[in-house]
UniProtKB/TrEMBL annotation:
It comes from the Bacteria. This is Lipoprotein. The lineage of its organism: Bacteria, Pseudomonadati, Myxococcota, Polyangia, Polyangiales. Keywords: Signal. Residues 1-20 form the signal peptide.
């Protein structure tokens, strides 16, 4: 019985850690790679790019701007299943998340002594 309790506790702790560790970068990466059918290597590269952007945003205290930008990607992006391409570009060739991306870039620029990093 004690063993069952310990196993269940470990399982719950593992699930809590896994859900707490799911970053906005991982959410966006998963959405993109699901649409684009990423190979393992492509998924690693895509996720690393988003994780780096998230780390930079966090380092410059721009987490809110990052969350807003990635939420836009998640909610406004579209998957072209025929071409297996995920994009936030609309039919008028405008990026629907451009304002959010610019706000993130501005936040990073304002906090950086070197003018920020462009992605």
């Amino acid at each position: 019985m004690i063993r069952t309790i310990l196993v269940n506790a470990a399982l719950l702790l593992g699930l809590a850690s896994a859900s707490a560790g799911c970053s906005r970068a991982q959410v966006v990466c998963d959405i993109i790679c699901e649409c684009e059918h990423c190979s393992d290597e492509d998924e690693i590269q895509t996720c690393e790019q988003f994780a780096t952007r998230e780390s930079v945003a966090d380092a410059y205290d721009c987490g809110d701007a990052w969350a807003t930008y990635t939420t836009c990607i998640e909610e406004q992006g579209k998957c072209d299943e025929k071409e297996a391409r995920y994009s936030t570009i609309n039919d008028n060739n405008n990026d629907v998340c451009e304002d959010e991306k610019n706000a993130l870039d501005s936040c990073i620029d304002a906090a950086s002594a070197h003018g920020g990093a462009r992605f």
